[in-house]
Amino acid sequence: MSMQKAVDNSRSSNAGLSMDNQEKLLADALQNVRQHAFAMKRVLDQQSVMEGLKHAANMLGELRTSLLSPKNYYELHVVVVEELHHLELYLTDEFEHGRGSHDLYEVVQYAGNIVPRLYLLITIGHVYIRANELPRREVLRDLVEMCRGVQHPLRGLFLRNYLLQCVKSLLPDTEEENQEATKTGTILDSLDFILLNFSEMNKLWVRMQYQGHTRDLQRREQERRELRILVGTNLVRLSELECVNVERYKTIVLPKIMEQVVSCRDSIAQEYLMECIIQVFPDEYHLNTLNEFLKACRELSASVNIRNILISLIDRLTAYSTRDGSQQNIPENIQLFDIFSEQIAEVVKSRINMPPEDIVALQSALLNLSLKCYRDQFEYGNKVLENTRKIFDNIALDTQVQTGTPAAKELVKMLKIPIDCYDILDVLKLNHYKLVLQLLSYRERHTVCMYIINSILDKETIIPTAEQVTQLFELLLTLIIDQTDSALETSRQTITNEDFVEEQNLVARLYNNFQAPNDPDQQYHIIKICQDTFKNGGLERMRFTYPPIIMQAYALTFRYKNIREQDEKWEKKCQKLFQLCNQLINTLTKLETNDLPLRLYLQGALAASEIGSENAETIAYEFFSQVHDNEKVLACLKKATKLTTQIMDQSVQVQLYNELLNTYIYFFNQNLPDIDITLLNSLIEKLQNEMSKISSNENDEFIRNQIQKTFDYLRQQSQLEKFQGLQINN
């Protein structure tokens, strides 16, 4: 049974057909097409045009099927059109050699079935127009009207697409209305043709949504998306017409397209077609029809994702306005920011159920436009940030956006835009940036703050004033001090956590960008602000943030020394800096490790000695005297003794006891309280007892020799009054 008979006898949907059945139906249809195509070519070679048309009609009859899926119908259509091309070439050749028949266009109108009839009419009409056998204007109008006879969505879409492809090079694209244009047509005829074809194709495309059972809705929507390019091709053709200028686009093309888009009330069609309009027509056209386009956006179905449409338009015009590094592409009479700002506000107002993340995404696109198109007009960026804050305040007053939500992610993206567009000094001019940052929960704020610091370091931006440093710290407080909403993170804020260490190292590196190269007093104010800010961060942060302050303060003393002839107060300023450093280092001594404060004290003593001020010797002595912490020394020695007793290896343990004894002897000589002869005798006795347990191999002999040297030293010292009572066995 042929495919067309199967169609006549069956009204069933292809929804119930399995993949295997689809493949079999397609294979059968393709086989029939090839058979009829072979017969058509054979009779055409014999100069039998009428027989050729008959076989062509039979071949085209396979396109009447309703059983194939859109994907398989497309494959069938491609093969049929390819075979039909042979007929077109044959007829063209006949006319070129003066053998063409002049009544074929009339003859094929008597074909029995409408689908084959229209394909043949389009093919022959195409040939006749090129051969000047029929007036172009009349044939084009005739064809586009007759295609209304096919109302099946799938068959109608592919038929009209074939029509559009055939007449692509035949559409009139001239302005003049003269005697010749009466036959060939003008640009207005082309616009009527394409706009009518577009309107009918869109109706067919939308109708697919409502054919079949509701359980197949998702499948039908997917099939529709696969066919969308067929409808969009009409808009591409419109954009390719040279005589479509801005005025004609504004008065004829866009209103007709928008009328169809808005009236169809189908979200899939509206989303695709609006996006298609944005992409296929020139930027100048969009600039001159912004209000019309945005007004239509407000009239779209409530289920349309308006966010993507508006963002796409904003991004395209933003890119256009900054093309070639210029910001002069936007005409002065077009207030781009104001238009978008007002229209977006209207869209948000009209869609009360718009998700917060969509609102933020729109504001982000608007912020991107304001920063790139109006780079020096910070009030535009501030206005966007202010509106964003107001929107969330109206949604939930004094409530942070929940971490991990789509809205939080969009806010993070939004806050990264100024960082990418500007250096931090310009970002600080956006007064409402901080207020939007405060909407975020701890983790998202942490992400943005890290992004800010990395940007400053990558761009090597110098922050030259204390005021700007203060403003920057207001943005970065999440990394500088404990946050009330970071309870779960507080336990991770220790030196054993790699992320915390990396974070604080970045904060420490940031300090190197705080430079007032020509103003030492400004640099001093920066140091004081850093101290006042970092002192609230806790000891775990201070081990990272204090050393850069201290080293910068030491460096500043040298700068004051270099200008001593211009600044009579330079010595007092240096003294204040050294006092500040002493205070900061003293705080660091509370850490478990003492090597960092020690190195900083020594560096301070060295700096004080090199400055050569009147009280340099006193300052240097003060730094040196700060290693002296008797309680900490004794605590360290006791801890070392305890650890030594836990060593399992006898030889290692004895060696450590010997080193421990030598350390105690050193501090005994330094008159450290609580270390007396009794304590030394206890360690000597312990060492002698443990030494008797080790073997006599070569390695242990080395240890014995080292211990013996310690005992020989003690025997010599026992003659002194300080070491009276020392007990060493022979």
Structural overview:
The protein has 730 residues and is mainly alpha-helical. Among the domains are: 245-324, no CATH class; 355-461, no CATH class; 497-628, Serine Threonine Protein Phosphatase 5, Tetratricopeptide repeat; 638-723. Helix content is 71%, strand content 0%. The protein contains 36 helices and no strands. α2 packs antiparallel against α3, α24 runs parallel beside α28 and α33 runs antiparallel to α34. The longest helix is centred in the first third of the chain and has 27 residues, at 19-45. It is elongated and about 140 Å long. Residues 1-16 have low confidence and may be disordered.
Topology:
Elements: H1 3-9, H2 19-45, H3 49-60, H4 70-96, H5 104-107, H6 114-130, H7 136-146, H8 153-166, H9 179-184, H10 187-207, H11 217-240, H12 246-264, H13 267-280, H14 283-288, H15 290-298, H16 306-321, H17 336-350, H18 356-373, H19 378-395, H20 406-421, H21 424-427, H22 433-437, H23 442-459, H24 466-475, H25 477-480, H26 487-490, H27 498-510, H28 520-534, H29 539-562, H30 570-588, H31 595-611, H32 616-625, H33 630-645, H34 650-669, H35 677-691, H36 698-717
